[in-house]
Amino acid sequence: MADAPPASVLQGEVVVRRAAHDDFARVGQLTFAAYLTDGFVETGNPYGAQLQDTAARAADAEVWVAEIEDPSGSSSLVVGSVTWCPVGSSWREVARDDEGEFRMLAVDPSGRRRGVARRLVEQCIELAREADLAGVALSSMPTQTSAHQLYLSLGFHRDPADDWTPVPGVDLWGFRLRF
What we know:
Elements: E1 14-18, H1 24-37, H2 46-52, H3 54-60, E2 62-69, E3 76-85, E4 99-107, H4 116-130, E5 135-140, H5 145-153, E6 157-158, E7 164-167, E8 170-178
Parallel strand pairs: 4-5
Antiparallel strand pairs: 1-2, 2-3, 3-4, 5-8, 6-8, 7-8
Helix pairs in contact: 1-2
């Protein structure tokens, strides 16, 4: 992505925070580009428009970002995001009534292998705990194997009962973490 500096420039701490309106354009670009680069969506796919429309997600869910601060503290760059879907959000797909759900986890290539995705998922787990929920659920494409490794390392398990096909040709696997 054009806005991100090389990973070698990003040496600061990973900080997770709720996205501000000023972040929405960057988050939309980052999310779509990450999915496109990894082959999880194609240009022209209607899901691509959802990935880019951060404002729509933020209106009925919570968008969280991970940024890496410059060691001097003079600047930071958003390098990852996730959409948290609490109880009542229309963005929920597989969560039970007593669970939270997250979607659209994305990390810019410049922020990968730095724990950015882990920090974002941990934030979602913490949000579920703070809301006194019984767990967290999510859907993931079978080809998102790096994400599966992360989820399993955090205590999630595959839940084949929640596997589903939202549109022909797109199969999703269910994952669940119960507290």
